[in-house]
Design brief:
91 residues, alpha+beta, YaeB-like fold, 5-stranded mixed sheet, 33% helix
């Protein structure tokens, strides 16, 4: 079962800025997106749901420092990407 990644205009802007600031993680970022699309439950992504003001969103790890937050639309098998950055930026 494959998922569809939905890149909103806001997310694309944040991702461009993130990759400009952190070009050294571009390969890890792209691999994370590929895994997320193929299998969001892959153990290396460390998928977890968020709570508090971000309740309803989920997060995966690009590496130990950087995360991607997103919304699952399970019915349509869409993953709407919300934010990318370090822990303090996305949470």
């Amino acid at each position: 079962m494959s998922w569809s990644l939905v890149f909103t205009e806001n997310y694309e802007k944040r991702a461009r800025l993130f990759l400009k600031r952190h070009p050294e993680v571009e390969k890890q970022y792209l691999k994370c997106l590929q895994l997320l699309e193929a299998n969001p439950l892959h153990p290396s992504l460390r998928l977890h749901s968020l709570s508090g003001r971000l309740a309803g969103l989920h997060s995966v790890s690009i590496n130990l420092s950087y995360r991607i937050t997103f919304e699952f639309l399970i019915q349509d098998q869409d993953i709407i990407l919300i934010n990318v950055g370090d822990h303090d930026t996305v949470y």
